[in-house]
Amino acid sequence: MNRKELVAAVADEASLEQKTVDAVLRALQTTLEGAIAKGDKVSVPGFFNLSTGHRAAREGRNPATGETITIAAANTVKFSAGSALKEAANK
């Protein structure tokens, strides 16, 4: 399901205009990005948990040449599905 299909499905389920649902989805994305940028954890019980993590710098290999390279440290976003999503996946 892509964004357009998601907007259409939610609009149909909630009896709302697609324009309204798209605006809410954009606001949700902006809000989540802001929270993650500040390092906050976002939790919606039963739905999902988002948090930040840190991956240390490490060595890797270029698969084409076999040359050793350094992979830079990076901040990551961790997503954990909530119980309702896990149950839906197992139906």
List the defining traits of the structure above:
91 residues; alpha+beta; 2 domains; three-stranded antiparallel beta sheet; two-stranded antiparallel ribbon; 5 strands; 43% helix
Walk me through this protein's architecture.
The model has no long low-confidence stretch (mean pLDDT 95). The protein has two domains: 1-40; 41-91, IHF-like DNA-binding proteins (HU Protein, Chain A). The strands form two sheets. It has a three-stranded antiparallel sheet with strand order 1-2-5. The chain is elongated. 43% of the residues lie in helices and 30% in strands. It contains three helices and five strands; from the N terminus they run ααβββββα. Helix 1 (3-14) packs across helix 2 (18-37). It has 91 residues and is of the alpha+beta class.
Question: In short, what is this structure?
Answer:
This protein is 43% helix and 30% strand. With 91 residues, the chain is of the alpha+beta class. The longest helix is centred in the N-terminal third of the chain and has 20 residues, at 18-37.
Question: Quick one: CATH class of the largest domain?
Answer: Few Secondary Structures
Query: What profile does the largest beta sheet have?
Result: 3 strands, antiparallel
Distance between the termini: 18 Å
Strand content: 25-35%
Number of strands: 5
Low-confidence stretches: none
Number of domains: 2
Helix content: 40-55%
Order of helices and strands: HHEEEEEH
Radius of gyration: 19 Å
Q: CATH homologous superfamily of the largest domain - what is it?
A: IHF-like DNA-binding proteins
Mean pLDDT: 95
CATH topology of the largest domain: HU Protein, Chain A
| Biggest sheet strand line-up | 1-2-5
CATH architecture of the largest domain: Irregular
Helix tally?
3
What is the general shape? elongated
Class of secondary structure makeup: alpha+beta
